[in-house]
Fold:
Amino acid sequence: MSGQPTRAGLPPEATGNTLVARIPGQWRAFFAFLRHPALPDRADLSLRASARALPPLFALDMALMALVLGSIGLATSLGMKMPEHMLEELKLTPLLVGFIVVGAPIAEETLFRGWLSGRPGHVLAVLALLAGGLALALVPSPALKLAGFTAGIALAVLALFVLRHRDAWGWFQRRFRWFYYGGAALFAAVHLTNFGGGSAAMLPLVLPQFMLALILGYLRVNRGLATGAALHILHNAAFVGLMLAAAS
Structure:
């Protein structure tokens, strides 16, 4: 099936021995995936494959970020007024930094890409966790909050265990392109709230999130959720590092 791992769990063009040699191959594999997104039955979860894929794709993420931020900086220098980011109004305490760098990426990867494998166990687990999170946020009684959240986690673990041998649904694989691009667009749109609301005119401001989501979706289905979460953590760490450097 298209998208299945090859030697060492990598596309043939991405099997160089050095990081510099791997970068063009990994980039070519990713851009080829963008043209024809294909969902493999299983991701290659080997540490070797993840370690080879992560640095080149993080380098690509940083290059794309630099391009977008440079464009925003140019627009600002030409007199365009940019809306304030909500983080500009918050004090970056160690606890908040820890949440942004580690907590938020893990939660977002689970919610936005945990289901992207198309496997029944993964989809049901995400739905169970979402239900538990909603109970935590909306149920007034503290006891019921805890009960609902605990039940959500228990059902997620049960779904993962009972359905662990089930492959992706065939209909999901056939329509994977729509899920892949639609999920990336939703991820970007949600980040409009970082600017205190959102409108169509502000969509260019979440281009970095859209491009990041495309890379993370590629990693999720080919290298597993943990590898995508690792890249997301690196991305957020770089972003927070820039903010702290600017503030100082």
About this structure: Confidence is low (pLDDT under 50) at residues 1-10.
